[in-house]
Amino acid sequence: MTIRFSLIYPTRHRPIFIKHALLFLENQKYQDFEVIVSDNYSDPNLSCKVECEKSDVKNLKYICPPKPVGMVENWNYALQFATGDYICYLTDKMFLLPHTLSQASIAIEKESPEIVTWIDNSYSPSEYPDYFGSGYYYVGRSMVPLSHKYLFYDPLEELSKKGRADCSRSEQTRSNYARGKICFGAYSALLCERIIHKSGNLFHNMSPDYSSMILALSWATSALELSSPGFVHINTDLSNGGQAQQNDQFALSYIKSLEKNELILDQLLIPSLYSSANNLVAHDYLLLKNKFNLEFEFDKINWLVYITEDLNFPDKIWSSLNTKEKHLNLLHEYLENFLPETEKLEYLARVKARTQAKKNIQRKAIKKILKLIIPNAFLCYCKEKRNAVRGILKCSAINEILINHKNSI
Question: % helix / strand / coil in the chain, to the nearest 5?
Answer without folding.
Answer: 45, 15, 35
